[in-house]
Amino acid sequence: MVRRAAALQLSEFAAALDTTLVTEDLLPLYRTLLADEQDSVRVNALKSTPKICEMIGALRKEVLDPQAGNFKQCVKDMSWRVRVACADVIGEVAVACKSDPDALELVKEHYKTLQEDNEAEVQVATALKSARATAVLGPEFGKSTIFPMLKSLVLDANTAKRLEMSGVVMDMAAPLGKALALELVMPCMRELISEKDDQPDLTNIRLAIIAKIAAFVDVVGTTSDDPKTPNETVKTVKELAATKNWRVRHAVLCQMPKFAKIMGEASFSSEFAQSISGAEYGAMDDYALIRTDWVFTMGEIAQLGFGAAWLSKHIVPVLEACKKEKKFQKKAVLLEGTGTLGPLLTPDDLMTKLMPLVLELCDDKVANLRVDAMKCLKEVCAVVPADYMKSQLVPKLNDKVTDEDPDVAHFAKLALDEFDA
User: Fold this and answer.
1) Is residue 361 within 8 Å of 323, Cβ to Cβ?
2) Residue 90's domain spans which residues?
3) CA 82/CA 34 separation, integer angstroms
4) HSE value, Cβ hemisphere, 13 Å, CA-based, for 167
5) Which of 19, 24, 78, 190 is the most exposed, having the fewest neighbouring CB atoms within 10 Å of its CB?
């Protein structure tokens, strides 16, 4: 237990010492612990390998050299747990050796050994470090050695940690660069999201990909070399937005502000405006969370610089259409949208197009809608002119203070209090 605890503290101890002490005193201890008879001690000692390699300069070759034992001995250890521990640190070891070309060649050799290990756990642990290793070992090594194994593992439905590896596939885009990302990552990504619905963890894999798709776009862009050919990334996002799973649709919706920021108003509107004004991204969705977040997401996009004109062209018509919906839950999007987006809209859009519809819903037979209408009126009090407030809103609020539903009356009073304040 003492040796195990000492091995675990090596990294922190090394950080507190100067290079001379690490080289003369700590390095021999590190070697001794790597050769300990207990595999748990060796596992803990391996965790300090990146810090040791960072501080010992030219001596790091003695740690990594296949002829010298040490780390190499652990890479081929009889215990699979020790080999997994080597895989867990291989990416950080590469980073620690990035200024030493000779040491990096040794790291490449160890990486190959680990990913070709007979134990699936070791292969998976190595694959999870793919992006980190590629960033240091170079895109060519990533293309020829790292990515083929990562792809093979992540596309195997029986592989453990497919979810985590799906995220790593997306992370590979940055170190590989645009050309290789389009050549390698894009086909793998599309193959993952196109799996049959009965595949294990399919929804979570799609969510993992969506969570990192904006960073992927930073690398590959959203425009095709051929203007007549649709961009594959944009095409993929649209396909995901049309899936039956509401979590996937919601995740795509949450990525829209990132796409808007990356693409700019003209390009974003050209690719996504029709979808945003349709059913895919939320206003008419059957799930309340998506409808609610659609409103906030559109406001976030408008605040990126798209402005009131963009809302007027693409969003206000959607809110107007909500009034015609049969289900009161979808009518409520008009109320929430008007209250939330009111400060961002032009006076004409707010008072001429939307507020008349809101005032109509104040008298709707569904009490929940009347409650939401009162909340909406409270929100717009701060943005409409005083004369409009007195002539249009106050009379309606005074009328609703005596509504038969106590909740409607309560929120009407709160709105009047807001006006009086």
Assistant:
1) yes
2) 1-123
3) 10
4) 11
5) 78
Under DSSP, the state recorded for 185 is: I
Q: Cα separation of 86 and 106, whole Å?
A: 14
Fill in the amino acid letter for 281: Y
Q: What is the torsional sign of CA 325, 329, 331, 336?
A: negative
Tell whether 207 is covered by a domain: no
CATH number at residue 60: 1.25.10.10
Q: Render each residue's pLDDT in the chain as its tens digit; 421 residues.
A: 677 776 666 667 667 666 677 676 677 777 777 777 888 888 888 888 888 777 777 666 667 765 555 778 888 889 999 999 999 999 998 998 888 888 899 899 999 999 999 999 999 999 999 999 999 999 999 999 999 999 999 998 888 888 899 999 999 999 999 999 999 999 999 998 887 666 667 889 999 999 999 899 999 888 766 656 668 888 888 888 888 889 999 999 999 999 999 888 988 888 887 777 665 567 888 899 999 999 999 999 999 999 999 999 999 999 999 999 989 999 999 999 999 999 999 999 999 999 999 999 999 999 999 999 999 999 998 899 989 988 999 999 999 999 999 999 999 999 888 777 6
Task: Give CA–CA dist 158/160, Å, rounded.
Answer: 7
Number of domains in the chain: 1
CA-CA distance, 36 to 133, in Å (whole number)?
28
Q: What's the angle, vertex CA 362, arms to CA 289 and CA 345, rounded to 5?
A: 65
Q: Count Cβ atoms below 10 Å from residue 200 Cβ, excluding itself.
A: 12
Model's pTM, two decimal places?
A: 0.84
**43 in a domain, yes or no?**
yes
Q: Which two tokens mark 345?
A: 């809209």
- SS3 per-residue string spanning 271-298: HHHHHHCCCCCCCCCCCHHHHHHHHHHH
Written as six digits, the tokens of 143 are 């293309």
The b/e string for 307-330 (b: 16+ C-beta within 10 A; e otherwise) is ebebbbebbbebbeebbeeeeebb
Residues 345, 381: contact at Cβ < 8 Å?
no
Report how far Cα 205 is from the mean position of its chain's Cα atoms.
12
